[in-house]
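Risk register update: the risk of archive-format incompatibility is retired. Evidence:
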Amino acid sequence: MMKDDRATIDPNAQMPPQPSPLQVLSSRQVFRERGGADFTVTAVDVTVRSTGQPMTIHVASVKDGRPGAVCLAVLEGNRQEFYLLARHWRVAIGTWQWEFPRGMGEPGESPVQTAIRELAEETGLTADPSQVCELHRIHADPGVMRDDVRVMELTFPSPPGSDEGATGTIPMQAGSGGTDWELSNLQWVTSRRIREMIQCGQIIDGLTISSFAIREFERGTE
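Archived output:
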């Protein structure tokens, strides 16, 4: 039987500082892609403090670990809201994935600027800073990745006649869309429909699921 920790964990309590169990001796770059995502692998030589055991840990990063952005484009309808989803081709798993638009930061960009640029490049939607709000900061996989992902909300007014159909979706208007070859089939989707897509396994991308959960928490959705 699993222990119920609800009575013992105070979400508002500050955890006492804990020293690292590892002592870092040195680090060195063992691979770097030139161009593209600037994918980099760094080897970190460490020893375990309690035993003195040496080991080497490899850490990956893209764009030198600059903040990237997951773009939660939200269409504010009269009766409910819609999120913008798209199918992305992912080479690593060789299939299309339903995801929120996202991308990596460029030198000198703020997370707000990254979100505005990436959304425009991938979908053709343009926004100004007044429409953008940073909701949270997450790490996709801190066991192997040195990353910094910002969950960014971009709000848009609902166009006339954009009530949902029976499927809980609104297709993007003809002629809209960016120039990203990885992306297709843009759809405005209700929160209820996204929950159904997650439950039935149509959405399995971790950043999309976690970003959706963060905004739903912010809204106080049960």
